[in-house]
Each structure stands twice: as C-alpha cells, then as structure tokens.
TrEMBL record, chain A:
InterPro entries: DUF112_TM (IPR002823). It comes from the Bacteria. Keywords: Membrane, Transmembrane, Transmembrane helix. Residues 18-436 form the DUF112 domain. The keyword Transmembrane helix applies. This is TctA family transporter. It comes from Halomonas campaniensis. The chain crosses the membrane at residues 16-37, 44-69, 108-130, 136-156, 168-189, 195-214, 318-341, 353-375, 382-403, 409-425, 434-453, 465-483.
From TrEMBL, chain B:
Keywords: Signal. This is Tripartite tricarboxylate transporter substrate binding protein. Belongs to the UPF0065 (bug) family. Residues 1-27 form the signal peptide. It comes from Halomonas campaniensis.
Length: 510, 361
C-alpha cells in the first residue's frame, strides 16, 4: 500500500502530468471565480482533449479543476455576495458582511486557509477510508436519504435569524418552487403546461444568482460608493484570516469530516453541503449573535467542508461508478475514455491510478489555495472601487452565467424574475437562504419519501438509521433553541449595563 | 497533429475508392469550408455523450472537405429541448447532426408527449449497440434462473426512467412476473447500489456494467444472473449477447420454462423494443432530406472513420466490446421500427401509461 502511494507520487511528478495538474487548477480557478460556472463546465471544456491523452495526465487535469473550483468560488461569494458556484452559497452569509466591513482580505484569508486544510483532510480521508467506504455508502438507503433531507430542512430555523416565521414562509415557497417540472417518481410534469423549458424544473444556478446577485447589484448601485462601507486599509487582513482559521482548528476538522461524509453519500447532491455545515456551525455555537453579520466561523465552516467534500464525492465515484456530484460524471466519462472501469476492483487493478487521483487532489488543493491566497489581496481591492465602475462587468458575468444553463431565452427571464423576488424579499426583511434550501431539498425529499414507501410501505420508519438521523435533527433544533435562549439572557443582561451602546448593524444580507 | 495526415489521407482515399461513384464528385466539395454542429441533448459525461464526442472527434477528418464537428450539449427536459431543436429549429442541410440514446429513440418512436422528433424523417449515420443483463438477488430464494416464477418476497425493480428501461420491463412482463416497480432512481448506477444494499431484488445493467459491478456480487453468492436481454436477428430470432455468449437470453429462458417460445403481442413488443434500444445505445442522426451529396459525404466519412486505426483504438474503450454499426447494418434500426404494428405500439404505450402514468401525444 505504502509502495503504491509513493509510486503514484512519482507517476504524478512527471513534468507533463504536473503541467496538466496546473492547467486544471488554472481552469478551476477561472470557472470558480465566474459566477454560475462550476466544475462541470470546466471539465466539459477539456473533455475533447482527453482522447489519446495519458490517463494519469488526464485524471490530474480533471482533478485539478474539481479541487480548485471550491477554493476560487469564494471570491464572488465574499466580495460581492454572489454565489461563485453552487458549492459556496453559504459563504455569503458571513463572508459578504465581512467584506462590507472592509474585512474582505481577512474573510478570504480565513476561507482559503480553511479550504486548504479541508481539501487536505478530504484527500487524507479518501486515502484512509476508500478501502472501508463501501459499508458507509451502502448504509444510506432511500429512507435514510429522506431523513437527511429533513435534517437539511431543520437548518432553516438557524438560517432565519430572529425571523423564524418569515424563514418558514420562505422555505415553504422554496419547497413549492422545487415541485415545478418533472415529478421525481412519476411521469408527470407540474406547472409546466406545454412549456418544455420547465420540464426539468428551474435551474439552481439561476435561482441562486437571481436571489443573491441581482438584489445586491441593485442596492449597491442605488446606494453608490464601494462595496466596503468603511474604507479602512486592507492591512495584513489575510494573515489575520489565516490566524482565525488556525484558532478555530477543531471547527475546521469537524466540518471537513462532515463535508467528506455528506459528499460520500450518493444521492444528496453537493449543493446542500455548505448550507448544512453553516447551519451546524451556527446551531452548535454558544454565541451566535454575530452569525449572519460577519462571524468568521460562518466562513470557515462551509469553506472547510466544500473543499473536503471532493474527497467524499470521489468515494462513490470510484467505488461504485456512481457520480457523487455532477462534475464527477465527467470524471467517469474520462475514466471510460481511458478504459478504466470504476468499481471496487479499481483498488486492486488500478490502485496506482486511485493514488494518483488522491495525490492530484492534495496537490491541486495546495496549489489552488496558494494561488487564491496570492490573488486575495489585489482582488479584495475591488471592494474599495466605486461600484458603478465594476457593476457592468458583474452584470454581464451574471447574465452569461445564467444563460449558459440551457441557452434558452427563459434562462434570462427567470434570472430577472428571481432577481425581483430576491430584491423584494431583501427589502421586506425576509431571509433568502431558507427559500434556496427549500428549493434544493424539495425534489429530493419527495423522491426519497415515495421511494421509501414504495420499497418498504411504512416499515421504513423503524429502521435504525432513520431513527438515528431523526434524533439528530431533533437534537440540533432543540439544542440550538436552548443555546439561543441562554445567550439571549446573557445578552439582555449585557444590554442593561450598556444601554447606550452602538445599535447592532442591520442585517443587510438576508 | 501533422504526423497523422498521411494516414488520414490514405484512409480517405480508400474510402473514396470504395464509395459509390455517383455522389462522390459533388460530395467532395459539399462540406468544404463548412462546420458541422453535433447536438447532444444530454449533460456531458454520460455514455451517449461520450459516444457523441468520440464521433465528433474523428468523423470530421474523414468527411471530404474536412469539416470541423463541434459537439454541443443542448440539455433540458430529459433530452426534449435538444431533440426538438434538432427536429424543428436548425437548417436541414447536413450541417447539424444529433447523437441520441436508445431510450430517446424509443421515446420518439412511441411519441412521448412534448417530443417533436420523428424518426421516420431522420437517417441514422452511425450507431453503437449495447446489451443488457438482468440479475436477481439470492434473497429471492431461487437457485436457477428456470425457477424464476417461484421467486419469493417483494420483487422490487428500480426504475430510473420507465421508457429507458422498457426492454427490461417488457422482458419481465413476458414472464408475467409479479414485480414491484420503484421509480425515482437517478441512474442505473444508483439501482446497482440499491441492489447491493438489498433494497432492490431485480436489477438490469448494461452488459459491461454487469460484468464489472454485478458479477462480483454473483461471485460472492449474493446475486444470480437471470438472463441476458439478447439481440434479435433480421428474422426475429433471439441471438446471444456477444459480450456474454454463454448466458441464456430471455426468450430462450421462456422456452425453457414453458416449453415453447413466447408468442402474442408481448413477444411482438419484445422483438420491436429490444433492437431499438440495444442497437442504438448511441445513434448519430442526420435529417432524411439533406442534399444527396451531403449524405454521401457523411457515409464516406463514416467508412473512413471506422477503418482508421486511430479511431479504432480510441473507440475500443468506449464501445465496451461491441462492434460499431454503420453502412447497411443501420437498416436494422429502421426495419425494426417498420415492423411494429399499431397494436404493439398501443400495447407499449398502455403498459407505460398504466404503470407509470407516462403520457404520449
């Protein structure tokens, strides 16, 4: 095993393969920074070049892209409040308020350090767990997956701040929007009429860009000035951010492991991972008064998890040939081109390739985050430029990001519609993340509920996995309410002593 | 890649020599300076997409005039958006091709609601076949596939998309087996995991996927192959799957159990469905009314491509042990469509509609 591990490193250190890995990292950073484009897009771009390429080089190229995207997509999330790809939506929650306080470099420093550590933990977990991952993956049947969607929905409370009712309302609206299009377990199209575009339902990229990007752009333009409200110098912000991450090292480790675990479960999709991690971080914090207002922990948790998840999604991809995320479908296609059949026998027949994948993942994470760290200081300066100078570019990028979903005119119509909805929600103080979570989980919850019933009638309710996850969800919700009460009491006590203090900043980002 | 030019020229030259003389003179310049757009109505990464990209990569250099073929994934609505675009919104002059999957062909053939693709107006250019194998969990308590009808327990069968799995469903219906269909699975890989987990009792996989990922379960004594779907020859007789020639086919198993070959509408339905799905795991279609010289150029290109050793090397992994279909063999696709009587079509539509609520126009 150790021989193979070292041997694989030598295979990868070949100059051409290393060059491909770098090329992958560069492409990953580019598509990560551009809102709406993600790993799938980057990998699709290079697929034609894989015919006839050496398998190790091809794999290094693809893994380079997959590993760099979740680092680079942090830039737009933090700097502009626009999700860089579907994996970094939750980073907006605290990263963007930090940028507006003039702490963009600190938020990015914390995010990239967390990404680096998370990515390495992901690669380590993949190499350590891959021989034993089969039981884990097999343990999650339809009933357990349904319970995981409920666990995801239980995050809504904490993502709604102090407006739980409005949050619930938004979540229900999201669940309803998620039912548009083809039903998950029947050949039936809902609310689509004869409009074929809606047969697939609304696109997550468009909903997320609409909800978060357009309202932010409108408000920034209306207000005038730069993104950062207080123009204190950047200073050594990113060093401070890196220190923040190291200070919260257990948070990084915990959320990296959660990211790997959720990523390893096929069928959940990777776009929920950052939200679940953000929710858990907020729910289990003693003092969560600053979450949503620029708490650095709200950046660290999802960023550790979304890099670590790549180690997780590779497990079902390699062991079962089932893509753990949409980008992994491209890796499967590449393996097919190279004549490698994914499956358990990869661990014996193609062990060196498995280790090349793991090394690529680790090295690409190091290179990717280092490049992002180097870029963070110059790019953070964007937040000090008057917004009207960069708005046209941002608008074009957002529109192109939405347009490449299906290149149908309705892409743009729905981008506008959700932009308007997001703006109204923002103005009326209705939290937007619950809507997005409801939307993501709607189809999954329905699918797995019906599948559980079709498979087991009602017997599925008594499965141990179902009961365990159910108990965990209840524990998280109840526990977080109790934690919140105790901190509120303490905060009240504090407020009595310092009545004249500065009022808490308004939560603009929700 | 300058070093392969002589080879390409040689292959193209050979193709010229063998192609029919009538069309070639004009065919030589039809694609001069033109590009061909290859619509792939699915997301990047699947088997059909990979086949479409393989063809896009190698076909152009063998077509006289050497047009560049650009593969484009036009996704949405389970392939409907891309298919409809190809059917209605592009110039029908041979500058647009489409790669369809077997189940997209079947959807078009049965007239799925919303799909405006009419296969009768299209002409296949090149295709790749793919066999399928159905296995059962040993939990069902049978030791031999001939005891199939004595299988016990909830015989769950995972469904991804009922039309896409039609050949395996028709086979189960042919045996008149009481199975419980569970729709909602994301893909055949997911059903394979659920099968190993014990959630599903019956599982159908493509033959390469079966050999790769179900065979290990068989070796562990946890699953048993029931039958290969097999192929159907021009006279309507079952043919063994070339990738698993030792495995009994579904009609042969029927004969073994009942002492006679299957008959009636269900047998006719089987004979129509199987070649349509299994011969066309990936099919490149052109519009039927493109100029003759364009069609001739495409045919010349395909002939040059399949004889190009570089293509053969690249294709070997992607075709997974099956021979590419081209030239006269493509006639089978149209022949099996023409062989379908209206009763058979209604039977298939009713079956899908009753069991899964699938709607047709």
């Amino acid at each position: 095993m150790l021989d193979a591990l070292i041997n694989a490193l030598w295979i990868l250190l070949d100059p051409f393969r290393l060059m491909m890995l770098f090329a992958g990292v560069a492409i990953g950073i580019a598509v990560g920074i551009l809102p709406g484009l993600g790993g799938l897009m980057g990998m699709a771009l290079v697929l034609p070049f894989l015919f006839g390429m050496d398998a190790y080089a091809g794999v290094a190229l693809l893994i380079g892209i997959a590993a760099a995207v979740p680092s680079a997509d942090t830039f737009p999330s933090v700097l502009m409040g626009i999700p860089g790809s579907s994996g970094s939506q939750a980073t907006i929650m605290d990263g963007y308020p930090m940028a507006r306080r003039g702490e963009a470099a600190r938020a990015l420093g914390a995010a990239f350090t967390a990404s680096l550590i998370g990515g390495l933990i992901g690669a380590l977990a993949l190499s350590a767990v891959v021989p034993f991952a089969r039981p884990l993956i097999l343990a999650f049947g339809s009933p357990e997956l349904f319970m995981l969607t409920l666990l995801g929905l239980s995050m809504i409370g904490v993502l709604s701040g102090n407006r739980p009712l409005k949050g619930m309302l938004a979540a229900v609206a999201g669940l309803a929007l998620g039912t548009i299009g083809g039903a998950p377990v029947a050949a039936e199209y809902r609310f689509a009429g004869d409009f074929l575009y809606l047969y697939d339902g609304l696109s997550l990229v468009i909903v997320a860009l609409g909800l978060f990007a357009l309202p932010e752009i409108i408000d920034l333009l209306a207000r005038g000035g730069a993104i950062a409200e207080r123009s204190r110098g950047l200073g050594h912000g990113w060093v401070q951010g890196a220190k923040d991450t190291l200070h919260h090292k257990w948070l990084v480790v915990r959320h990296s492991l959660i990211g790997v675990a959720i990523g390893a479960i096929p069928g959940m999709g990777s776009s929920i991972i950052d939200w679940v991690n953000y929710g858990i971080a907020a729910q289990t914090s003693k003092d969560r008064s600053q979450f949503g207002k620029g708490d650095v922990r709200g950046v660290i948790a999802p960023e550790s998890a979304n890099n670590a998840k790549e180690g997780g999604v590779l497990m079902p991809t390699l062991l079962f040939g089932v893509p753990g995320s949409s980008a992994m479908a491209m890796l499967l296609a590449a393996l097919m081109i190279f004549g490698v059949q994914p499956g358990p026998q990869m661990l014996t027949r193609d062990l060196d390739l498995v280790f090349v994948i793991i090394w690529s993942l680790a090295l690409a994470n190091v290179f990717g985050t280092l490049i992002c760290l180097l870029l963070s200081k110059p790019i953070s300066r964007l937040t000090f430029i008057p917004f009207q100078f960069i708005a046209p570019v941002i608008i074009v990028i957002v529109v192109v990001g939405a347009w490449q979903e299906t290149r149908h005119w309705a892409d743009l119509a729905f981008l506008l519609a959700f932009g308007l909805l997001g703006w109204i929600m923002k103005r009326s103080g209705m939290p937007r993340p619950p809507l997005l979570i409801g939307f993501i989980l709607s189809g999954l919850a329905e699918r797995y509920l019906w599948m559980s019933y079709n498979l087991y009638d009602w017997e599925w309710l008594t499965r141990p996995g179902v009961l365990t996850i159910g108990a965990l969800a209840v524990f998280l919700v109840v526990g977080s309410v109790m934690l919140k009460r105790s901190t509120e009491r303490r905060a009240d006590a504090l407020q009595h002593t310092a009545e004249s203090g500065e009022p808490a900043p308004r939560e603009e980002t929700r | 890649m300058p070093k392969i030019r002589p080879l390409t020229a040689l292959a193209a030259g050979l193709a010229f020599a063998t192609a029919s003389l009538a069309g070639t003179a004009q065919a030589a310049d039809y694609y001069d300076g033109k590009n061909i757009r290859m619509i792939i109505p699915f997301s990047p990464g699947g088997g059909t997409d990979t086949f479409g990209r393989l063809i896009s990569q190698y076909l152009g250099r063998h077509i006289p005039g050497e047009p560049t073929i650009v593969a484009e994934n036009v996704t949405g609505a389970g392939g409907l958006l891309g298919s409809n675009e190809f059917a209605e919104r592009v110039d029908q002059d041979g500058t647009t091709l489409m790669t369809a999957s077997g189940h997209l062909n079947l959807r078009a053939f049965l007239g799925l609601k919303g799909l405006r693709l009419d296969l009768n107006e299209l002409e296949p250019v090149v295709a790749s076949p793919m066999g399928h194998v159905t296995a059962i969990s040993t939990e069902a308590g049978i030791d031999d596939s001939s005891e199939l009808l004595e299988a016990r327990g909830r015989l769950t069968k995972g469904i991804t998309d009922p039309v896409g799995l039609l050949e395996s469903l028709v086979a189960l219906e042919m045996f008149d087996l009481e199975y419980r269909a569970v729709p909602g699975y994301g893909g055949r890989g997911d059903t394979r995991i659920a099968f190993e987990r014990g959630e599903l009792m019956i599982n159908t996989q493509s033959t390469p996927a079966y050999l790769n990922s179900v065979q290990p379960l068989v070796d562990e004594g946890r699953a048993m192959p029931l039958y290969a779907i097999g192929f159907i020859d021009a006279d309507g007789n079952p043919v063994r799957d070339p990738a698993v020639p030792d495995m009994i086919t579904a009609p042969e198993l029927y004969e073994q159990i009942h002492g006679e070959m299957p008959s009636g509408t269900i047998w006719e339905a089987f004979k129509v469905t199987v070649p349509l799905v299994q011969n066309t795991r990936g099919t490149v279609w052109a519009h039927g009314d493109i100029p003759e010289e364009a069609m001739a150029a495409l045919r010349t290109g395909v002939e040059g491509m399949v004889n190009d050793p570089e293509f053969q090397a690249a294709a070997a992994n992607i075709l997974e042990g099956y021979e590419i279909m081209w030239g006269d063999d493509l006639g089978q696709i149209k022949a099996s469509m023409e062989a379908a009587s209206p009763e058979v079509l209604d039977f298939l539509r009713d079956m899908l509609n009753e069991r899964f609520g699938t709607e047709f126009d």
